[in-house]
Amino acid sequence: GYGMTETTGSVTRMLGPEETKRHGTVGRLSENMEAKIVDPITGEALPPGQRGELWLRGPIVMKGYVGDDEATAATLDSEGWLKTGDLCYFDTDGFLYIVDRLKELIKYKAYQVPPAELEHLLQSHPEIADVAVVPYPDEEAGQIPMAFVVRKPGSNLTGIEVMEFVAKQVAPYKKIRRVAFVNSIPKSAAGKILRRELIDSIQSRPSSKL
Predict the structure, then answer these.
(1) Cα–Cα distance between 205 and 184 in angstroms, integer?
(2) Taken in order 54, 104, 62, 74, is the CA torsion positive or negative?
(3) What's 112's domain CATH number?
(4) Would you say 54 and 47 are in contact if contact means Cβ atoms under 8 Å apart?
(5) What span, in angstroms and rounded, lies between the C-alpha atoms of 77 and 72?
(6) Which of 63, 84, 102 is the last residue of a domain?
(7) Domain AMP-binding enzyme C-terminal, which positions (predicted)?
(8) What pLDDT score was predicted for residue 204?
(9) Number of domains the chain contains
(10) How large a percentage of the chain has pLDDT more than 90?
(11) Distances from the Cα of 37 to the Cαs of 53, 71, 83, in angstroms?
(12) CA–CA separation, 69 and 66 (whole Å)
């Protein structure tokens, strides 16, 4: 299921063995909950299959942050819709899929690249033990995708090989354009990648560049 602190509980659920077999989804909306996928730039509601920010409304959604009117106004609109900050989409059967956090998207030229999508792809490489993708500042593009890679023991994988592996499988704007090899990926106690630590370390670290 899917939920967040601001919803005070889970807002999706999976019923029965057939639904739990659906790969990658967090389930369908729970009873009494409303949801829509919204274009983060135009604010327009999007149809099934299109990615945008997930907005939620229902009885378990919070009324606001205590003592912080500014944060409340940024998160809840006047009609009670909660802006989750998550990039998501619904399929035609009403199943919800989480793509990434909006604030973690890499802004490459006019495109938005979800780091989690590239991480998932790189984790399928037989010589990669762990990986994280972050934005790297670029004068021309604004930001480019950079991968921090932990090789499996005995691997001699190169940065060029990592970039070529991704380039064969994604649109040109999603290509990894810089690679650094590390011993481990910094993560929180909950297992979440600490991207800020990696971004802060970029300037002092040698890397392979496309």
Answers:
(1) 14
(2) negative
(3) 3.30.300.30
(4) no
(5) 9
(6) 102
(7) 117-192
(8) 65
(9) 2
(10) 59
(11) 5, 21, 10
(12) 8
Helices (H), the chain: 16-20, 69-75, 115-122, 159-167, 195-201
What are phi and psi for residue 11, nearest 5 degrees? -110, -5
Backbone angles phi, psi at 162, to 5 degrees: -65, -45
Tokens of 191: 């297992």
Alpha helices (runs of H) in 51-146, residue ranges in sequence order: 69-75, 115-122
Q: Please state the length of the chain.
A: 210
Same domain for 39 and 14: yes
The tokens 């011993």 sit on which residue?
183
pLDDT for residue 190? 82
Alpha-carbon distance values, 127 to 5, 80, 124, 166, 180 (Å): 37, 47, 9, 14, 15
CA–CA distance, 134 with 106 (Å, rounded to integer): 7
For 113-165, how does the pLDDT look when each residue is reduced to its tens digit (9 = 90+)?
999 999 999 999 999 999 999 999 999 999 999 999 999 999 999 999 999 99
**What is the extent of the structural domain holding 205?**
105-209
